[in-house]
Amino acid sequence: MAVIVLASASGAPGVTTTGLGLAMCWPRPVVLVDADPVGGSAILAGYLQGTVVHNDAMVQLVLAHRDGQLAGVLPNVLMPLPDTSVVLLPGARSHAQAAGLVDVWAPLAVELRGLERNGLDVIVDAGRLGMAHSPTPLVAAADVGLLVTGSGLSALAGARQWAVSWSAAAKDGSGALSAGCVVVGEGRPYSGRDVARTLGLPVFGTLSWDPDAAAVLSAGRAGGRKFGTSRLVRSLASVAAAIDQQISAARQETALRHETSARQEVVTL
To answer: How far is CA 219 from CA 48, 52, 100, 184, 213, in A?
Structure first.
């Protein structure tokens, strides 16, 4: 089981749409966490078109944490998304609530990692990097931190410095265990290989530029039978599989290192 964090360095590269799409294509049950400090609950307003009442989940978690009841309250504020294996932890109603969430991010990260015991993976939408009151502890607790970026020059210019920071944090242990990126709209105009070379991060996958299919996820438009076989959904499934494989390989490597180290200690004794 794993925790994956998605974030962007600039506006509107599609982090929320990417996170929702990956969650819906994920090979196991998954919790999708809206941790964007800007607030607005984009999934409730967009994909669900306001048909589900906001449950003020984050406010409930803050109060529960103050009372020492975070672990007990968390399962009660998760919202199943209809006809999927995704459960949603809705975000703040507005940016005005962001400052009040700062103290809950670290204990929430611990509880989210604990969901592994129940067979749940976690995908976190951390919004735009550099915002006040960002959920930094969630990034630090992640197995993988992924920058979502377009392939245009302005998008890459914004992502480059953050890529350096995320890569350094992965190496020194202050960030996600590994860092990479997901490219939205490869070939507009640069390729995934160009992006990887520019950012100095591995590209875990590329998402097709498919505005009609994206509108199903971002605005709740009717997708029809073609949505499931659209270019976007096919590419989302490929990226989800690539992330899952990367995490499995990294964990196997870590386990092997620990086993080798233990054997060496026994030999030394």
So the answer is: 8, 14, 28, 18, 10
